[in-house]
Write a structure and sequence with these properties.
The protein has nine helices and ten strands. It is an alpha/beta fold and about 280 residues long. Helix 7 links the parallel strand 7 and strand 8.
């Protein structure tokens, strides 16, 4: 059960073979393919709004089959994805990324391999940074009146076109966000006479943001957005997006550096690059 709990909470896992090697011969025989297909067809009609385990070929696994794979396969991993048609969370059990070919698109497999290399060298933070940049870099900001401003107005990102825009994603209980605010204030002061706008967006409510600002100086323009939209931009805070005059995201910084003060120089470098 501990192994299964780990599978439920971690995107990718590696499990050690817990069964003694001399017991490996006792592994249950595989079900004939025709029977597997029949069982999967029946299960696929029944399983909705739940958690489903599949093998690398996409076959739905019974609890017994799943437990057998976990027990007898070395270095088993789990790929989690969402099945919109049946509203299920799927966990695909496999050993090597190549096992998924024919079931998972090749492009997705190559991306998983690249992310695994990143995770080994730079940790999960490097993977998140890659995902966010892949999704947003050189892409336009979304259309729509998403921004609830603290002055009571409602704005869209298109209201900021025509000027270089620096966006900070933060929230009230984010310690690293608060620590870097003095350096962000210096940034606003540095460019106060230039055609650059600084926008801070949080998923906190307007009253909570106002209460925070009564106690802490933060010189950006402030607005509130939905938690889902903010997490779509970045699930990690603080985050900084540099947006050009046409509304396209050109550079992204995710997370806070260990030496907080260098965020000022990093943002200055990106602003100067995108002013040209």
């Amino acid at each position: 059960m501990k192994i299964l709990q780990i599978i439920l909470f971690i995107f990718f896992i590696s499990c050690q073979n817990n069964a003694p090697k001399e017991d490996a011969k006792q592994q249950p025989q595989e079900m004939p393919k025709k029977e597997v297909k029949k069982e999967n067809a029946a299960q696929s009609q029944q399983i909705t709004n739940g958690i489903v385990f599949k093998d690398a070929q996409g076959n739905i696994l019974s609890d017994a089959q799943k437990d057998s794979l976990v027990q007898y396969m070395d270095n088993i991993q789990a790929l989690r994805r969402y099945d919109q048609e049946n509203n299920n969370t799927e966990y695909i059990l496999f050993q090597n990324y190549g096992d998924l070919r024919g079931f998972v698109p090749d492009e997705s497999i190559e991306n998983l391999i690249e992310e695994n290399k990143l995770r080994r060298s730079g940790g999960q933070g490097a993977v998140l940074n890659k995902r966010i940049n892949d999704q947003w870099k050189n892409q336009p900001l979304p259309e729509g009146d998403f921004l609830q401003m603290i002055d009571g107005s409602v704005k869209s990102f298109s209201d900021y076109r025509g000027k270089l825009l620096v966006i900070n994603f933060w929230y009230i209980n984010c310690g690293p966000c608060i620590v870097e605010m003095p350096y962000l204030n210096q940034l606003v002061d540095k460019y106060q006479n230039e055609d650059i706008q600084f926008l801070a967006l949080s998923f906190d409510t307007i009253p909570d943001i106002k209460s925070f600002l009564n106690k802490t100086e933060f010189k950006y323009e402030h607005g509130s957005i939905s938690r889902s939209l903010m997490y779509d931009f970045t699930p990690v805070s603080p985050g900084h997006f540099i947006v050009d005059k046409d509304g396209k995201i050109r550079d992204i910084i995710i997370g806070a550096p260990r030496n907080t003060e260098i965020i000022f120089d990093k943002l200055v470098d990106l602003i100067e690059k995108n002013k040209k």
